[in-house]
């Protein structure tokens, strides 16, 4: 079997605007003859240009402008990532078809099967958390400004209700439920953004030679530099030690690995059972296997692993099962696979985190050959 034929978007634009050469026309015809998916792609592109494209009066083919309008037409707001993957070289038709044309399917003259069946919209997560004091008392939080006031009120209450004791570190725990996220600033000025279904234990103030916190889940840290007091993030399967830096730690209990991704500075990671710590530099990621207790260091695009804190998911060649875990935490849903083999399907794309869940599922559906059924708080994944 030969590879699928790919065609540059610029050529399609010129063909639709009657600016293409004879050689390009022959190339398009050959591409159209290859399969129905290509013909359907072309039909939708033609419909868009006939009805919506506004650049024809310039008599100069503006392929980038055409594509930008095309994306707006299909309600795909974040197009930067797709552009750098597509324009300028031969674009994979299936990726374009899935990511660029999600909402166009409902407007097609050719009836398509319903990709996402929803009985009620699944809203994205919000800023929320629970603060559990070392005494066991629990208070619900809704925004970062509340945290400082709540801690101060609690501290004053405890001072008046007991005799002054020798100062010691007492840890409180911030619990982020599924469907939530939270920003906080620690006593030393370090800022932390916590992802859904995460916990961070931290003292009201740091005492002694180190600044130690305990993490379960995922967080992005921006640590204030203090060479005399290293900052340590403790997880169930290892520790990350820093002096002052920006880094992301992913340490969910249900994941097979612990990942630390460094944006700025320098960190040392030492997993359980590792004889020595691994030091990584900016742009590197250490992945620790919980089962084998081994770690690997690789160069990565750090934006892929920190974009969640900026309101998006940048996904490159990720298994569907891993993507659905993220969605389950963020939208507070359960996921059921009617066909277990779909877990290994791979997706690449740029997803907006604050969209309703069905928007995300529509985009994934078009490039992974699956359909989703959303009923109550359960997403069923089918071939």
Describe the structure.
28% of the residues lie in helices and 31% in strands. The protein is built from ten helices and 22 strands. It has helices at 9-16, 22-32, 36-51, 63-73, 80-86, 93-100, 144-161, 302-306, 320-331, 357-368, and strands at 116-118, 126-127, 129-132, 138-141, 171-176, 180-185, 191-194, 198-203, 211-222, 231-235, 238-242, 246-251, 257-264, 267-271, 278-280, 284-289, 294-299, 312-319, 334-337, 346-352, 371-375, 378-382. The protein has a 16-stranded mixed sheet that branches. Strand 12 and strand 13 form a beta hairpin. Helix 1 crosses helix 4 and helix 6 (93-100) packs antiparallel against helix 10 (357-368). The radius of gyration is 25 Å and the shape is elongated.
């Amino acid at each position: 079997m030969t590879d699928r034929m790919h065609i540059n978007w610029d050529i399609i634009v010129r063909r639709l605007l009657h600016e293409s050469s004879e050689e390009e026309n022959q190339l398009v015809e050959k591409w159209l003859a290859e399969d129905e998916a290509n013909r359907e792609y072309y039909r939708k592109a033609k419909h868009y240009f006939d009805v919506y494209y506004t650049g024809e009066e310039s008599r100069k083919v503006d392929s980038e402008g055409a594509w930008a309008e095309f994306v707006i037409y299909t309600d795909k707001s974040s197009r930067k990532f797709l552009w750098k993957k597509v324009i300028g070289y031969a674009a994979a038709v299936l990726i374009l078809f899935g990511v660029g044309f999600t909402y166009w399917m409902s407007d097609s003259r050719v009836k398509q099967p319903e990709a996402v069946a929803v009985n009620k919209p699944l809203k994205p997560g919000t800023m929320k958390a629970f603060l559990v004091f070392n005494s066991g008392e629990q208070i619900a939080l809704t925004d970062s400004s509340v945290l400082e006031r709540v801690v101060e009120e609690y501290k004053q209450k405890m001072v008046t209700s007991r005799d002054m004791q020798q100062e010691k570190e007492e840890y409180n725990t911030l619990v982020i439920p599924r469907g939530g996220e939270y920003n906080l600033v620690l006593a030393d000025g370090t800022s932390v953004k916590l992802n859904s279904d995460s916990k961070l234990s931290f003292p009201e103030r740091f005492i002694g030679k180190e600044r130690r916190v305990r993490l379960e889940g995922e967080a992005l840290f921006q640590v204030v530099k203090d060479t005399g007091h290293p900052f340590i993030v403790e997880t169930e399967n290892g520790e990350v030690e820093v002096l002052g830096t920006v880094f992301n730690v992913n340490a969910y209990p249900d994941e097979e690995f612990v990942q630390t991704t460094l944006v700025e500075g320098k960190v040392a990671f030492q997993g359980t059972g590792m004889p020595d710590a691994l030091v990584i530099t900016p742009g590197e990621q250490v992945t620790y296997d919980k089962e084998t207790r081994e770690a690997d260091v690789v160069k990565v695009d750090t934006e892929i692993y920190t974009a969640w804190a900026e309101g998006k998911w940048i996904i490159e060649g990720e298994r569907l099962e891993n993507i659905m875990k993220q969605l389950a935490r963020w939208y507070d849903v359960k996921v059921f696979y009617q066909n277990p083999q779909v877990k290994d399907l791979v997706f690449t794309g740029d997803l907006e985190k604050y969209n309703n869940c069905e928007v995300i599922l529509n985009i994934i559906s078009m490039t992974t050959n699956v359909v989703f059924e959303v009923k109550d708080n359960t997403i069923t994944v089918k071939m």
